[in-house]
Fold this sequence. Notes:
Mean pLDDT: 74
Number of helices: 7
Largest sheet: none
Shape: globular
Structural class: mainly alpha
Oligomer: single chain
Number of strands: 0
Radius of gyration: 23 Å
Order of helices and strands: HHHHHHH
Helix content: 40-55%
Amino acid sequence: MCASGIVARDTAKWDWLTFLGGCKTHLPPTINHYPIMSDTYVPLISSGVAGPLGVLHLPRMWQKVSLEATDKLASGYPGIGRGFDAMTCASLGLEEQAVKDYIKKNKPTYPQFESVGKGKCEVTYLAGDRETQRRCARV
């Protein structure tokens, strides 16, 4: 209990006490008196979102792989999983490992990543077999 009579074990009072400068001796361990934030992120883009290309789930997959490439993806989330991620790659004719390598190496923005899927740049890097490369080059 502080001199003011407030018990600092209540989390609602920790923030109040921290910002008003009162009774910091009973606060939980923090850095500079602010709560420690997580270093990882949960992907918040829905699978139902499509970018300008019109492919559902592609923005979420890009976000997950981008976060994974920088070790910022929350645990429990794969960069490219076996479900919707794998189906999206298969429908576009993209190899999963090539997508991961491309994003890790080039760190593209989403529009840059989507333009690769349209066949405008570096299609041969992402495309799996020669037939897919030819098909993407015609887009």
